[in-house]
Amino acid sequence: MAKIKVLADSTIDLPAHYLRDYDIGIVPINIQFGTDSYQEGINIDQTTFYKKVDELGIIPQTSQPSVGQFAEAYRNCALQGYDTILSIHVTSKLSGTLNSAMLAAQEVEKEIRVLPYDSLAGSAGLGYMCVDAVEMARSGITAEEIVTRLSQKRPDTRIFLTLASTKYAQMSGRISNLQGFIASLLNVKPIISLQDGMLLPSGRVRSRQAALAHVLDLTKESVGNRRVKFAVIHGEARAEAEQLLEQGKQSLNCADSFIDDIAISLAVHFGPGVIGTVIYPA
User: Of 45 and 15, which is predicted with more confidence?
Assistant: First the structure.
């Protein structure tokens, strides 16, 4: 039986015990404040990130891991005795990360087999997908069959977000298709959804409470009574996130649920106060 390793990039949102229990490898996104460069989760954490934004008054740039970073991670897996890697990444429609992974896979093809895969998501959607892949690998399912099954579930992965402030999104170049929608909002809370790997406008409401209620309504509408894995992700909005998680658990058919801080590489584009729901098929 092939020994399969699941790798992701650091846009993944999963509580630490999931990462530990499922032994998911992470290749960090690069975070750049001017001339200072950091690797997400290695030499910059959530607290430091928000503090630097406040102190410097600038929003950093992000860039995908280099081909070299991926190749090094793949070779390390080979040294650990793995013969196959499922390299699962943030949507290729918003990031060049998957492309770096594909180029690195070609570079190491004589040393280890790598199957790069587009989650068409990120955050906890990517997280639950990686957990799913590890569970399948541990049950003896082949890498190719895992990819087939992930592709069957991928269209039903849902993410709904609301922003506390549009400042970060306006300054971010990564979600350009939302610029007109966001720029037109004044004292209105935008609702954004992830569909087929793209972020799309999904409504606007007047208050924060109405925005959170609408996010939950959209979440419920998208799944009905289907059994799902559910997560709430947030940027410095823990109390609201906990309340939304409890409301979701009461109204959804949940097989699993968690709450987590949104990855720095995503918070760059959405800002503090972002809060969202994530659905993955159980």
Answer: 15
